[in-house]
Amino acid sequence: MHPSFRKKHVIKLLCRFCDSYVCRRGMKAVLLADTAVELYSTDSPISGKVSSVGKSYSTKKCTCKICDVACTSCGNILGYHVMLPCTSCLQSCNNGHLWIFNSNTVWAESRLNQSATEMLKWDSLPDAASEQDSELDEWDNYFQEMECCR
Ligand SMILES: [Zn+2]
Ligand SMILES: [Zn+2]
After folding, report:
1. Beta-carbon count within 10 A of 140 CB
2. How far is ligand 2, taken at its centre, from the CA of residue 74, in Å?
3. Whole-angstrom Cα distance, residue 135 to residue 141?
4. What's the CATH number for 3-149?
5. Which of 3, 22, 39 is nearest to 122 (CA)?
6. Ligand 1 centroid from CA 86, angstroms
7. Residues 40, 31: Cα–Cα separation, whole Å
8. How far is the CA of 56 from the centre of ligand 2 (A)?
9. Structural domain spans, the chain
10. 67-111 tens-digit pLDDT
11. Which end of the chain is more exposed for a tag (fewer CB within 10 A), N or C?
12. How far is ligand 1, taken at its centre, from the CA of residue 129, in Å?
Protein backbone atom coordinates (compact mmCIF):
# COMPACT_ATOMS: atom_id res chain seq x y z
CA MET A 1 0.00 0.00 0.00
CA HIS A 2 1.21 3.52 -0.80
CA PRO A 3 2.72 5.25 2.32
CA SER A 4 0.20 8.11 2.15
CA PHE A 5 -2.61 5.66 2.89
CA ARG A 6 -0.89 4.11 5.91
CA LYS A 7 -1.36 7.22 8.04
CA LYS A 8 -5.10 7.34 7.40
CA HIS A 9 -7.53 6.46 10.16
CA VAL A 10 -9.43 3.20 10.11
CA ILE A 11 -13.16 3.78 9.98
CA LYS A 12 -16.10 1.57 10.84
CA LEU A 13 -19.09 1.88 8.54
CA LEU A 14 -22.76 1.38 9.35
CA CYS A 15 -25.69 1.18 6.96
CA ARG A 16 -27.65 4.44 7.30
CA PHE A 17 -30.93 2.67 6.66
CA CYS A 18 -30.79 -0.05 9.31
CA ASP A 19 -27.75 0.82 11.48
CA SER A 20 -25.99 -2.49 10.99
CA TYR A 21 -22.21 -2.61 10.73
CA VAL A 22 -21.07 -3.42 7.22
CA CYS A 23 -17.35 -2.73 7.50
CA ARG A 24 -14.70 -2.42 10.21
CA ARG A 25 -11.78 -1.50 7.97
CA GLY A 26 -12.89 1.51 5.97
CA MET A 27 -10.86 4.43 4.66
CA LYS A 28 -12.08 7.88 3.72
CA ALA A 29 -11.49 8.52 0.05
CA VAL A 30 -12.27 11.31 -2.35
CA LEU A 31 -13.06 10.70 -5.99
CA LEU A 32 -10.31 12.30 -8.06
CA ALA A 33 -12.80 13.25 -10.76
CA ASP A 34 -15.22 14.88 -8.33
CA THR A 35 -13.64 16.07 -5.10
CA ALA A 36 -17.03 17.12 -3.71
CA VAL A 37 -18.10 13.50 -3.40
CA GLU A 38 -16.97 11.79 -0.23
CA LEU A 39 -16.56 8.06 -0.34
CA TYR A 40 -15.33 5.29 1.90
CA SER A 41 -13.37 2.38 0.58
CA THR A 42 -12.36 -0.96 2.03
CA ASP A 43 -10.35 -4.01 1.09
CA SER A 44 -12.81 -6.27 2.84
CA PRO A 45 -16.34 -5.63 4.17
CA ILE A 46 -17.66 -7.79 7.02
CA SER A 47 -18.49 -11.10 5.39
CA GLY A 48 -22.19 -11.66 4.84
CA LYS A 49 -23.14 -8.06 5.64
CA VAL A 50 -23.12 -6.80 2.06
CA SER A 51 -23.60 -8.52 -1.27
CA SER A 52 -23.32 -7.55 -4.90
CA VAL A 53 -26.61 -7.15 -6.71
CA GLY A 54 -27.59 -6.96 -10.36
CA LYS A 55 -25.42 -7.10 -13.45
CA SER A 56 -21.94 -5.64 -13.73
CA TYR A 57 -21.52 -2.42 -15.69
CA SER A 58 -18.97 0.28 -16.53
CA THR A 59 -19.17 4.02 -15.97
CA LYS A 60 -18.27 6.74 -18.49
CA LYS A 61 -15.10 7.43 -16.50
CA CYS A 62 -13.24 4.23 -17.38
CA THR A 63 -13.62 0.58 -18.28
CA CYS A 64 -13.60 -0.90 -14.76
CA LYS A 65 -16.27 -3.55 -14.38
CA ILE A 66 -18.33 -2.67 -11.32
CA CYS A 67 -21.56 -3.81 -9.70
CA ASP A 68 -23.82 -2.36 -7.05
CA VAL A 69 -23.48 -3.50 -3.46
CA ALA A 70 -26.43 -3.75 -1.10
CA CYS A 71 -26.81 -4.18 2.65
CA THR A 72 -27.95 -7.75 3.32
CA SER A 73 -29.95 -6.67 6.40
CA CYS A 74 -32.23 -4.14 4.66
CA GLY A 75 -31.51 -4.47 0.93
CA ASN A 76 -30.61 -0.85 0.27
CA ILE A 77 -27.78 -0.06 -2.16
CA LEU A 78 -24.77 1.28 -0.25
CA GLY A 79 -22.12 1.55 -2.94
CA TYR A 80 -20.33 -0.56 -5.49
CA HIS A 81 -17.71 -3.24 -5.90
CA VAL A 82 -15.01 -3.11 -8.57
CA MET A 83 -15.03 -6.64 -9.91
CA LEU A 84 -12.43 -6.05 -12.59
CA PRO A 85 -10.28 -2.90 -12.40
CA CYS A 86 -9.21 -1.36 -15.73
CA THR A 87 -5.55 -0.80 -16.59
CA SER A 88 -5.61 2.96 -16.05
CA CYS A 89 -7.06 2.54 -12.54
CA LEU A 90 -4.53 -0.15 -11.70
CA GLN A 91 -1.69 2.10 -12.82
CA SER A 92 -2.88 5.20 -10.98
CA CYS A 93 -2.01 5.72 -7.32
CA ASN A 94 -4.70 3.79 -5.53
CA ASN A 95 -5.10 2.00 -2.22
CA GLY A 96 -6.08 -1.33 -3.76
CA HIS A 97 -9.54 -1.14 -2.25
CA LEU A 98 -12.22 -2.60 -4.47
CA TRP A 99 -15.29 -1.90 -2.31
CA ILE A 100 -16.64 1.65 -2.32
CA PHE A 101 -19.39 3.06 -0.10
CA ASN A 102 -21.12 6.41 -0.61
CA SER A 103 -21.01 8.85 2.29
CA ASN A 104 -24.75 9.43 1.98
CA THR A 105 -25.62 5.77 2.50
CA VAL A 106 -23.33 4.85 5.39
CA TRP A 107 -22.43 6.34 8.78
CA ALA A 108 -18.76 6.50 9.62
CA GLU A 109 -17.28 5.88 13.06
CA SER A 110 -13.61 6.07 14.04
CA ARG A 111 -12.12 2.79 15.09
CA LEU A 112 -9.90 2.82 18.19
CA ASN A 113 -6.83 0.74 18.83
CA GLN A 114 -7.00 -2.30 21.07
CA SER A 115 -6.54 -0.37 24.31
CA ALA A 116 -9.03 2.25 23.04
CA THR A 117 -6.58 5.08 23.72
CA GLU A 118 -6.21 6.43 20.20
CA MET A 119 -7.60 6.15 16.73
CA LEU A 120 -6.35 3.18 14.80
CA LYS A 121 -4.33 3.91 11.67
CA TRP A 122 -3.95 1.70 8.64
CA ASP A 123 -0.28 0.89 9.30
CA SER A 124 -1.20 -0.85 12.56
CA LEU A 125 -4.22 -2.69 11.17
CA PRO A 126 -3.84 -6.46 10.73
CA ASP A 127 -4.62 -7.82 7.27
CA ALA A 128 -8.15 -8.81 6.36
CA ALA A 129 -7.59 -12.56 6.76
CA SER A 130 -6.34 -12.46 10.37
CA GLU A 131 -8.93 -9.82 11.14
CA GLN A 132 -11.83 -12.18 10.43
CA ASP A 133 -10.71 -14.45 13.28
CA SER A 134 -10.30 -11.72 15.87
CA GLU A 135 -13.68 -10.40 14.85
CA LEU A 136 -15.31 -13.63 15.92
CA ASP A 137 -13.54 -13.45 19.29
CA GLU A 138 -14.81 -9.94 19.79
CA TRP A 139 -18.36 -10.99 19.06
CA ASP A 140 -18.07 -13.92 21.46
CA ASN A 141 -16.91 -11.60 24.22
CA TYR A 142 -19.72 -9.23 23.40
CA PHE A 143 -22.34 -11.92 23.74
CA GLN A 144 -20.82 -13.23 26.95
CA GLU A 145 -21.09 -9.75 28.41
CA MET A 146 -24.70 -9.56 27.37
CA GLU A 147 -25.31 -12.84 29.10
CA CYS A 148 -23.94 -11.47 32.38
CA CYS A 149 -26.14 -8.42 32.26
CA ARG A 150 -29.37 -10.33 32.03
ZN1 LIG B 1 -11.09 2.09 -14.07
ZN1 LIG C 1 -29.03 -1.85 5.95
Report:
1. 10
2. 4
3. 10
4. 2.170.150.20
5. 3
6. 4
7. 10
8. 21
9. 3-149
10. 999 999 999 999 999 999 999 888 876 788 999 999 999 999 999
11. C
12. 26
